[in-house]
Structure formats: structure tokens, C-alpha cells
Amino acid sequence: MQSIGEAFHLALSLVLSGEADLYEIVGLSLRVSLSATVLACAIGLPIGALIAVSRFRGRGLVLIVMNALMGLPPVVVGLLVYLHLSRSGPLGFLGLLYTPGAMVFAQTILIVPIVAALSRQVLEDLHAEYAEQFRSLCLSRWQSITTLLWDGRYALLTVGLAGFGRAVAEVGAVIIVGGNIDHLTRVMTTAIALETSKGDLPLALALGIILLVLALGVNAGVQALRMTAARQAHV
């Protein structure tokens, strides 16, 4: 049994040495999470923008559902995606189960409500400021949406980073649909769970260090974008 100090020392050695298996796992994690974030933004941002500028009966209920979906249990999402992608499921013909594509699918479902709900709040606040100008210019709903998306681009980038942070830290859904297969679907979070259960603390800690650095990087990026947006607002 290694001491904590020895495990940390070996973990840092793995990180600094550029160990191939370690960075293969990191690379797959980034590809899956970035792909899911892009897809989630492509779906969630228009939904959030449309709800932000629209007023309709039942809107309050829609907002409640959107906010509730932000807390979707990952294992439930993973189970539902598994059932759809399995051979007997409606999407079984795609052959995505236990592939990175299935992991992207699951992460996208988890992130879309987050992106839609957060972007709705950002764009609704902007719309409240610009609504009178939009009416005076006789802009259509879609023209208003594209204008808001562009004007709120810095704030929306922070929404995207929040979605990415949620995706890269996900374990429950991806392990169900991906299977944690070595050199195919093993990402940082699933590898940490596996290596910890095996007692291989150095590799688990090395991945944990990289995951922590990524989380700090995302938070730093969010803060930098907020400062940029604030400076732009005062120009």
C-alpha cells in the first residue's frame, strides 16, 4: 500500500513525463466533452433565445421544466440512452452503444437544459433592455434573436464553458453507455473510478490533477470572459 505522498509523487511524474496512456484518456475526454458542448450549444442557445423573446400561455410552466431539467440525474440519462441505443432499441441500427458517439449523445442530453436555461436568463435580460428599440425598428422575432445572440456573445460563451465543465466531469451516464473500454471509451472520470477501485492511486491522482487543472481553467475562462463583457458594456 503506497503512502499518499508516494502516490502524489508518482502521479506528478506521470503527468510531467507525458505518459501515452494517460494523455490518450485525456484526449478522448476533451474530444467527447467538446463535441457534446458544441452540439448542446447548437440546440440549447436557439431554444433559450426563443423562450427569452416569446410570451405565451404556459411560459411559466416551461421555465419550471427547463430549470428542473438542469438537475437531470446522469445515471437516468445514461440508462435512457442505453435503452435507445441497444440492439432492441429504436436507435440500435446506428451501432453507437459502447462508442465515443454514445458518450457524446448522453453528455449532450445532460448539457442542453443547462445551456438553454442559462442562455434564456442572459438573453431575457438583454431583451428587456432592447425591446423598445426592436419594436421601433420593426424587427421580426428571428431578427431579434440573432441580434441578441450576437450582442450577448461574451456572456453566452460563459454558458458554453459552464456546459463544458459539466460534461468533462460527468461519470454516471458515460460509463453506462460507453462501458469504460480501454483505448476506446475510457475517459478521465471513468478511469479515475476504475483505477481507484484497483488501487492504482498514482494514475487516478494524475488524472484527478489534470481534471482539476481543467476545471480551474474553465473557471478562469469564465471570469476572463465576464471581465471582457463588462469592459465591452462600458465602451
Automatic annotation (TrEMBL):
The family database entries (CDD domains) matched by this protein are listed as: TM_PBP2
Cellular component terms, GO, for this chain's entry?
plasma membrane
Primary localization class, coarse: membrane
Residue ranges annotated as coiled coil are none
Tell me the ranges covered by the ABC transmembrane type-1 domain, including all copies.
Answer: 26-222
Query: Does the record's keyword annotation contain Transferase?
Result: no
UniProt KW Transport keyword: yes
Q: Where are the transmembrane segments?
A: 32-53, 60-85, 97-118, 154-181, 201-222
How this chain sits in the membrane, per its record, is: Multi-pass membrane protein
Q: Which SUPFAM superfamilies match?
A: MetI-like
Q: Which UniProt keywords apply?
A: Membrane, Transmembrane, Transmembrane helix, Transport
Q: Which family does it belong to?
A: Belongs to the binding-protein-dependent transport system permease family.
The record's listing under NCBIfam families reads: ABC_perm1
Cross-referenced PANTHER family: PERMEASE COMPONENT OF TUNGSTATE ABC TRANSPORTER
Protein's UniProt name: Tungstate transport system permease protein
Source organism of this protein record: Alloyangia pacifica
